[in-house]
Write a structure and sequence with these properties.
Structural class: mainly alpha
Strand content: under 5%
Mean pLDDT: 93
Low-confidence stretches: none
Number of helices: 9
Length: about 250
């Protein structure tokens, strides 16, 4: 049975590094088109898990289609990564989005997934369907940046933050629609419906307007992504100063 940092959890974390090494060696030196195809196929594996969840409870009614939509930050990577891989020309903000967000969210999930302990086996959908797709998101992001020789400038971090906040706002509005129409009263995509089950998160959420039925945890997430972007920017800037700048492709 799975538990935080028991052998199953640790083996899945090790699996991430094993897969990263395997696909890096497999694709290193291959043509750009081959690299793109394989990376897109990897994203398709994650998409399979995400969309299978959407239809998982369809036998209990059409409302269940709204219970597992790919509208969490990590799940949105099944759309963001193909867009980054396939789009040509300059895409500074998109590449910085991959650098700042596509990797960080899945890393948190690999380390601290919200999964009940001592309930699920290692091969269950809750375990395999969490660790494998999130591992793939990070692997594809790293290999995409590496194989395309992309190293973004840390300048203007507010642009990538603005994109993230627009996505957050759209998802929050969608949550409210699902809640107020009673289609999905517990809608909590991007955690804007209610704060993660941690004491400090609930304290902050209450201070930032959680009791308001329209605000809920929206401003908690705004603060969270602002802090995440700031930290990513500072680390990025610190590392970038040691290199000659090459703009995002």
């Amino acid at each position: 049975m799975y538990a935080y940092f028991n052998y199953i959890h640790i083996l899945y974390i090790i699996l991430f590094f094993v897969l990263l090494i395997i696909f890096h060696r497999l694709l290193k030196g291959k043509s750009l088109i081959v690299q793109k195809i394989v990376l897109l196929l990897l994203v398709a594996v994650s998409a399979f898990f995400e969309f299978s969840d959407v239809f998982r409870y369809l036998e209990f009614g059409t409302k269940t289609l709204f219970y597992n939509l790919p509208l969490f930050a990590c799940d949105l990577n099944i759309f963001i990564l193909p867009l980054a891989i396939l789009r040509t020309g300059r895409k500074d903000t998109l590449n910085k989005f991959v650098l700042y967000y596509v990797t960080t969210g899945p890393c948190f999930t690999l380390l601290i997934p919200e999964i009940s302990e001592n309930v699920y086996t290692w091969y269950s959908n809750e375990i395999l369907g969490t660790f494998l797709p999130h591992s793939i998101y990070i692997i594809v992001a790293i290999l995409y940046l590496k194989f395309n020789h992309i190293r973004c400038s840390p300048s203007k971090p507010y642009k990538v933050l603005s994109c993230m906040l627009v996505i957050l706002t759209i998802v929050h509005i969608f949550n409210l629609i699902l809640i107020f129409t009673d289609i999905f009263p517990d809608a909590n995509y991007m955690f804007t419906g209610k704060a993660p089950p941690m004491a400090w998160a609930n304290i902050l959420a209450n201070a930032l307007g959680y009791r308001n039925k329209y605000i809920r945890s929206y401003f908690l997430l705004v603060l969270g992504y602002t802090l995440l972007t700031t930290i990513a920017f500072l680390i990025h800037k610190c590392l970038d100063k040691n290199f000659t700048h090459v703009s995002c492709a």
